[in-house]
Amino acid sequence: MEDATHTDAQRPRPRTGRPPLSEQSKAATRLRIAHEAVRLFTAQGVAKTSSAEIARAADISPRTLWRYFSAKEECVSPLLSAGVEALVTALRDRTPGQVFSEALRSLSVERSGNSWAIVQLVRLTRTEPGVRSVWVRTHLDAEPLIAEVIALRIGASPEDLRPRVQAAVLNVALRAAVEDFAWHPRDDGRSLDDTVREALAIAAEGLSD
């Protein structure tokens, strides 16, 4: 009869080293890095800010920072994607038969608690090419995600022209609204969310299922 006991080589060994990080923990770390990056970029400019400074401010090692981001400018991407995430959430929560304009009234960029940092970053896009590149790429990368959510709700393929065009229209409206709010400060009490909702309502006038 074959011996069922484990040999030393077969016996399970206890896990060593650090436990794997949860997705929530990773997201929190990415956001902490982003906030420190925008603080440093705003205070002294991108060129005068090193990745080591960002890592030190975020209380992580430079090696850990590079595991999350491939360049120091990329560190701000979690903040720049907040508006897109809010748009996708609003579209995903749209009830059957609900028109675009009604669904988008619930959208809130400010709910994330990061609106101040987002506005500071978008202001930097006018003078910092690296940050501008991340901002534009964030929206380009998001367009297929927006199209996918729209397609799912209308029973189409994300590759169909209608959801792709609708996604492009909403995406551009969102980017234009955040830029308008950041670049042209007003004293009329309008919030970032007010500006975003107005822009999306204008865009939604030409959209239908």
From TrEMBL:
UniProt xrefs under SUPFAM superfamilies: Homeodomain-like
Region (Disordered): 1-27
Family annotation (InterPro entries): Homeodomain-like_sf, HTH-type_TetR-like_transc_reg, HTH_TetR, MftR_C
Domain of life, per lineage: Bacteria
Coiled coil location: none
Positions with biased composition (Basic and acidic residues): 1-11
Signal peptide location: none
PROSITE patterns referenced in this protein's UniProt entry, alphabetically: HTH_TETR_2 (PS50977)
Record's keyword annotation contains Electron transport: no
Residues covered by the HTH tetR-type domain: 27-87
GO function terms (MF aspect): DNA-binding transcription factor activity; transcription cis-regulatory region binding
Keywords, comma-separated and alphabetical: DNA-binding, Transcription, Transcription regulation
Feature: DNA-binding region: 50-69
The protein's name in its UniProt record: Transcriptional regulator, TetR family
Organism this protein belongs to: Marinactinospora thermotolerans DSM 45154
